[in-house]
UniProtKB/TrEMBL annotation:
UniProt similarity note: Belongs to the ELOF1 family.
One Gene Ontology biological process: transcription elongation by RNA polymerase II
Protein's cellular compartments: Nucleus
Pfam families: Zn_ribbon_Elf1
Name the record gives this protein: Transcription elongation factor 1 homolog
Biased composition (Acidic residues): 129-147
Biased composition (Polar residues): 80-91
GO-annotated cellular components: transcription elongation factor complex
InterPro entries: Elf1, T_Elf1_sf
Region (Disordered): 80-147
GO molecular function annotation: RNA polymerase II complex binding; zinc ion binding
Organism listed in the record: Melampsora larici-populina (strain 98AG31 / pathotype 3-4-7)
Role this protein plays: Transcription elongation factor implicated in the maintenance of proper chromatin structure in actively transcribed regions.
Major location (coarse): nucleus
């Protein structure tokens, strides 16, 4: 008779680190200067820097923690700085998209005429591969229910 295998002892559980409640200021870069106050009765939170007096208020719910409010403050600051950059980059993007659309053939008639110019006739030879060029697959030609 064989010997029973010994059961493994359960491993140690990792202790959860407490979430930060004091943060670095986004404007003056002072560590430990930003404090968050959650008013659960009014469902409002205020995060404020004690050094440069920058502050941010937002509505909260019962699950919101100070780190969530700090993340919202970061997002709001980035969004406030973003409109100047988006105006120039969106114009650049539309120019690039317009240029790309002009370079691609827009119908199968254009690809058939291009094949004839290259000497490929439908069924004329075995060396023609219809899947050789991927230019005929446009995102607007795909059905909407794929994704």
């Amino acid at each position: 008779m064989g010997k029973r295998k010994a059961a493994k002892k359960p491993g140690k559980k990792a202790k959860l680190q407490p979430l930060d409640k004091i943060f670095r200021c986004l404007f003056c870069q002072q560590a430990g200067a930003v404090h968050c106050k959650l008013d659960r009765q009014e469902m409002v939170s205020r995060i404020e820097c004690s050094r440069c007096a920058q502050w941010f208020e937002t509505k909260i719910d019962h699950l919101t923690e100070p780190i969530d409010v700090y993340s919202l403050w970061i997002d709001a600051t980035e969004q406030a700085n973003r409109p100047q950059a988006n105006a120039s980059s969106s114009a650049h993007r539309t120019t690039n998209n317009h240029r790309e659309e002009r370079e691609r053939p827009t119908s199968t008639r254009n690809t058939q005429s291009a094949d004839k110019q290259r000497g490929h006739e439908a069924g004329a030879g075995n060396d023609y591969d219809p899947f050789e060029e991927a230019d005929d697959d446009h995102p607007e030609d795909l059905p909407d229910d794929l994704f």
